[in-house]
Design a protein that fits this description.
The complex is a heterodimer of chains A (211) and B (68). By secondary structure, chain A is an alpha+beta fold. Helices cover 64% and strands 12% of the residues of chain A. In chain A, a hairpin with an 8-residue loop joins strand 2 and strand 3. The longest helix of chain B is centred in the C-terminal third of the chain and has 11 residues. Classes of the chains: A alpha+beta (211), B mainly alpha (68).
Chain lengths: 211, 68
């Protein structure tokens, strides 16, 4: 029986995910050191250059525009826009919660990429139907679900707080709530795959005991 | 499991060690050990044939049934 050798795609993917993992670890250093350092040591003028981006919906009450295609007007309804809040004007509690949210998302992402990397390494080593891989796949699904909902909820909170500070304007501005549907779908697929892998592990164990 | 392997008894009768048997039948020592210690879930006919050939015995000499 020849020794197993993973195909090129698997080896490339493993290398790419490993590289991504180390990049994310590096970003963690920036997050944990640089961001607080900027907060504590930069003056207001310097802080004004940094902004927190948040999304808002501007309600246009169905504005109509005539295009060059014909007389029937095109309708513009709600428009998604980005509101950039200079850190220098954001209150301390808002910055702290925004930073905590960012850290939480970072930890979830780091765990996700860590498990993905270990999964690819085991596949590359020729042991895909490993009990730990089944557990890892389930964790990947749950982490992705958590990331999707955490990001959606946090972005909504941030947007709602910022929108409430805006003065009354002729156009209504509101905070959108959305969860990445594709991330939720992929998460559910991963959880289903985990069950398939668990069964695959059982079959492989049974097969290894056939002499 | 009601079916169990009596390989150790046959090895003793033929005065053959597990290592010698593994070399003669072309099986790994690990797999033979799984068989000998009754951890195997199934045995292939090709394995049974090789064992019977090398140990000069019948399949019934290697397998026994005992209702639990």
């Amino acid at each position: 029986m020849t020794a197993y050798r993973a195909n090129r795609v698997v080896r490339l993917l493993t290398a790419a995910v490993s590289f991504g993992y180390f990049v994310i670890c590096g970003c963690g250093v920036l997050l944990l050191i640089v961001v607080p350092a900027v907060e504590w040591f930069a003056d207001d003028e310097a802080l004004a250059k940094f902004t927190l981006a948040t999304t808002a919906i501007v309600q246009l009450d169905d504005a109509r525009l005539v295009s060059s295609w014909g007389p029937d007007p095109l309708t513009l309804s709600d428009t998604k826009t980005t509101v950039r809040v200079p850190i220098s004007v954001a209150p301390g509690w808002f910055r702290s919660i925004a930073y905590a949210g960012l850290l939480a998302s970072y930890v979830l992402l780091l765990l996700f990429v860590y498990h993905l990397r270990r999964l690819f390494q085991r596949v590359r080593d020729g042991a895909p139907f490993d009990a730990r891989n089944a557990v890892r796949l389930r964790w990947l699904g749950l982490l992705l679900l958590a990331l999707a909902f955490a990001d959606g909820l946090f972005a909504f909170w941030q947007s709602a707080v910022v929108v409430r500070t805006l003065p009354v304007t002729p156009v209504a501005v509101r905070a959108p709530f959305s969860v990445d549907g594709w991330a939720v779908f992929v998460a559910l697929v991963l959880i289903a795959l985990a069950e398939i892998f668990r069964r695959g592990t059982e079959l492989e164990e049974e097969q290894s005991l056939v002499v | 499991m009601p079916i169990y392997v009596t390989l150790d008894r046959v090895l003793e009768q033929r005065d053959v060690t597990l290592t010698e048997l593994s070399e003669r039948v072309g099986m790994t020592l690990a797999n033979l050990s799984i068989l000998k210690t009754n951890k195997a879930r199934a045995i292939r006919f090709s394995t049974l044939e090789a064992l019977c050939r090398e140990l000069d015995c019948e399949p019934g000499d290697l397998l026994a049934y005992e209702d639990d």
